[in-house]
Design goal:
By secondary structure, the chain is an alpha+beta fold. The chain has a single domain, classed as HesB-like domain (Hypothetical Protein Aq_1857, Chain: A, Sandwich), CATH 2.60.300.12. The chain has 2 helices and 9 strands; from the N terminus they run E-H-E-E-E-E-H-E-E-E-E. The strands form 2 sheets. Strands 4-5-2-3-9-8 form a 6-stranded mixed β-sheet.
Amino acid sequence: MSKFMITISEKAKEKIFEIRKAENHSNDHNIRVSVKGGGCSGLMYDLNFDSTIVEKDQIFEDKGIKILVDKKSLLYLLGTTLDFSDGLNGKGFQFINPNATRTCGCGESFSV
């Protein structure tokens, strides 16, 4: 994995395809990952489907999925892997972010 990319684990890929199909999104609906202020650690991840690519987006592709990131969020997310867990400790998408110096217990917010 390159520290200059955003990647997706095999489990996350399978879940993205499953959700995309269940919500009737076409294949031109990409994944948009961004960082917003908030949460118990100061910054929160935001993940959703988006069919719009804007000029300032950085586009990554991994395992057949395009990942869109706005320039403001990019510095916080470089080197991050999007994973999915369905274990006893919680179910949902997880961000394995080497830039985060602190994360909250729920894993949805972080600080750098």
